[in-house]
Amino acid sequence: MIEPFLVLLCGVAAGALNAIGGGGTFVALPALVAFGVPPVTANAVSRIALVPGALASAWVYRRDLVPVGPTSTRALSAASGVGGAVGAGLLLALPATSFDAAAPWLLAFATLILAFGGHLSAAVSTVLGRSVDLSARSVLVAQFFLAVYGGYFGGAVGILMVALWRVGLGVDTAISNPMRVTQLGAIFFSASVLFLVASDALEVPLLLVAMLLGAVIGGAAGAHLARRLPAWLLRGLLLATAVTTTVLYFLRS
């Protein structure tokens, strides 16, 4: 029973990270792979398990939810849901070796966005001489493609969303965090429906349930914790996790 217990702890950490600022996949996916779950199956299991955690976080944040730019919450959630399903379909349709080869580079890209997203936002604003204001259509198109990435891989998709909203709309990270968690729930939910039907996720039910329970605990606790810890500490912890996981993935590959 030691493996399910450790997976549960990893689920707690993943749910908390997603609630605080994103990056739960950095913990959930490598943990499952370390316990012998094939990478594609591990990706499906982590996505399914993190859905309830995202919903628990969204419930905590429900009173803080505000629209992002000119788009409505309903339209943004629809783009996230459709994109998440498309990404999940790509993961199941493409050979497993494609994911193995892409995973380290996807992790590296997400880590760079996490580390330098604020500088990118400032640089774009400086070059243009004003903040960028994307149209509602542009936001929805960008959200769809981010959701495809989220359905296919998921690593730091929440971080990428916040970066898009900050660079393209000038939205404060703290204000957009509740919406980020809500959109994570939409992406993961639509992907999970497909994974439950077409993937091998149910072949490891004990690990799936353990990570799911942990993600719910971590998602609720992390949302409460995010209101108490200083922002610089949260960013530092998340960046350290992302960098460590990226290095380990490159060494493994």
What's the alpha carbon Rg, rounded to whole Å? Answer: 17 Å
Major sheet: none
Query: What is the molecular shape?
Result: globular
Helix/strand-derived category reads mainly alpha
Please state the average pLDDT score: 83
Low-confidence parts, pLDDT < 50 over ≥5 residues? none
SSE arrangement, N to C? HHHHHHHHHH
Helical percent range? over 70%
Report the β-strand fraction as a percent range. under 5%
Number of DSSP helical runs: 10
Q: What's the count of strands? A: 0
How many domains would you count in the coordinates?
1
Q: Could you walk me through the main structural features you see in this protein, from its secondary elements to its overall organization?
A:
With 253 residues, the protein is mainly alpha-helical. The chain has one domain. 81% of the residues lie in helices and 0% in strands. It has 10 helices and no strands. It has helices spanning 2-20, 25-34, 39-60, 73-93, 96-128, 136-152, 157-169, 173-198, 205-226, 231-252.
